[in-house]
Design brief:
With 337 residues, the chain is mostly helical. The protein is globular, with a radius of gyration of 20 Å.
Length: 337
């Protein structure tokens, strides 16, 4: 009886996280459409529309990767950390699958951009000397799995006590101010950041992953202390922005890293409620296959960036976004069969 109740609770939690990942996936694909297909709207859109699209793109840039890490932390606890000793092979397979997705995206984008590819280009992409833009987040997602294979036991210890979690989170975020980014090679930049290329350093963003593990481990939904803490962190970033302007994203500064905490937790709270509602297979499928949707969208958007398919003005970004989800949904339906 207790096992059945636990399975029902886990199913509800998984549904909430599927919805959260679906929202983040939709946001990221739409923002990438805005960024890569600016020819649709930069000259034809009314000023209000143009500013709104620019703000939406910035908002997604701020919130999406960190919120995805939170989701990964939450899901990793349920899928891997509950029985960590027997889950390392699954973690390795997950990392390999995501790394393959990165390489497909990276090689695909390079070929679409350049039409040809040489052995030197292939080597540099394979050994990560050349990190391909708009694919680097897939690389970060992949290395999270590999990293947790080695530090999973430490993650469980860190998330066993909120004080330890807080101390490690502060250390990781503050360390962003002391890293000599200019001399960091690409392979290390994946973990701690670099000024040479756009990256999502997983160690600096790792507090979001740890928060996801902590909340999942303790079966927390609403907690006033977490709400107050995340609000304080995000408010400090907003105060910084009002005085000094937007903080650095590549590499991420302290105030960029803390900016998304409140949004991430509030989105989790929202999805914990709407997770009780069945929005249909399509929405759920996006959350369950978010990486595949992102991979497919990368290749479709890159193709459209070089071949303007619609001369319809700023409405084109909505048409392309719709096409991406229809195509991705059909591909995933076929693959999953």
């Amino acid at each position: 009886m207790l096992e059945e109740i636990q399975k029902i609770n886990d199913a509800k939690r998984n549904m909430a996280l599927d919805y959260m990942k679906a929202i983040l996936t939709i946001n990221m694909i739409f923002a990438h459409t805005i960024q890569l297909l600016s020819f649709f709207w930069d000259s034809s859109a009314p000023k209000l529309i143009s500013r709104s699209l620019g703000f939406l793109s910035l908002f997604v840039n701020i919130t999406t990767f960190s919120s995805f890490l939170f989701c990964f932390g939450y899901v990793f606890y349920v899928a891997y950390f509950k029985n960590f000793k027997n889950s390392k092979q699954k973690l390795f397979r997950n990392g390999i699958n995501t790394l393959i997705a990165y390489y497909i995206s990276a090689f695909g984008i390079f070929i679409i951009d350049n039409e040809v590819i040489g052995f030197g280009n292939i080597y540099n992409i394979l050994v990560l000397n050349n990190i391909i833009g708009y694919s680097e987040f897939l690389l970060a997602f992949s290395f999270i799995s590999f990293l947790t294979i080695f530090i999973g036991d430490y993650i469980l210890k860190i998330t066993s006590n909120y004080r330890i979690l807080l101390i490690y989170s502060v250390i990781l975020i503050v360390s962003s101010s002391f890293i000599p980014y200019s001399i960091i090679p690409p392979q290390l930049g994946i973990f701690i950041g670099s000024s040479k290329f756009a990256s999502f350093p997983i160690l600096l963003y790792f507090p979001y992953f740890l928060l996801g593990v902590y909340i999942s481990k303790n079966n927390i939904v609403f907690n006033k202390y977490i709400l107050i803490g995340t609000a304080a962190l995000s408010s400090s970033s907003i105060l910084y922005i009002t005085i000094w302007g937007m903080p650095s994203r590549f590499p991420p500064s302290i105030f960029w890293l803390t900016l998304s905490f409140l949004y991430t937790y509030c989105l989790y709270l929202l999805c914990s409620q709407i997770g009780k509602i069945n929005f249909g297979v399509f929405f759920k499928r996006i959350g369950q296959n978010s990486l595949l949707y992102l991979l497919i969208s990368n290749l479709v958007l890159r193709y459209f960036m070089h071949h303007n398919p619609f001369n319809v003005g700023w409405w084109g970004i909505f048409i392309v976004t719709g096409i991406i989800f229809i195509v991705a949904n059909q591909i995933i339906t076929i693959v999953r069969k």
